[in-house]
User: Fold this.
Amino acid sequence: GGWKVIDNKKIEKTYKFKDFKEALDFTNKVGKLAEKEGHHPNIHLSWGKVVIEVWTHKIGGLHKNDFILAAKIDEIES
Amino acid sequence: GGWKVIDNKKIEKTYKFKDFKEALDFTNKVGKLAEKEGHHPNIHLSWGKVVIEVWTHKIGGLHKNDFILAAKIDEIES
Assistant:
């Protein structure tokens, strides 16, 4: 949970961390998953925070694969 | 060069890469530098592109240290 649909064309979620390093570690885990899936979100990294945006560039909107990627990103956390 | 001053309160630069992995590698180099310097930019990572924003949170604007960090980020590239 925690994903918001923005303008009916992307989904976004904010993850909080205790410091920059943990946020960077999460960014790398998401990056590794993205490479494996062949589907790349936008990742906004700042101190203690990572905001992930997912959408399908080819259609300029949301596809089933976006929700699958979102679910897999959520699995990284736990 | 290539840094733009935005609203007189932050500096921003866009770096382009050949794929996601190279952009992620650069993100990690910037992250490592940020930890060393104790000064953390915002890093926006997407496929083949990294946008870096630097400012000093404490003063809500630009300080000499921001330009020093920017220069050190530029040194990573070469």
Q: What stands out?
A: The CA atoms of residues 57 and 71 of chain A lie 19 Å apart. Residues 20-37 of chain A form the longest helix (18 residues).
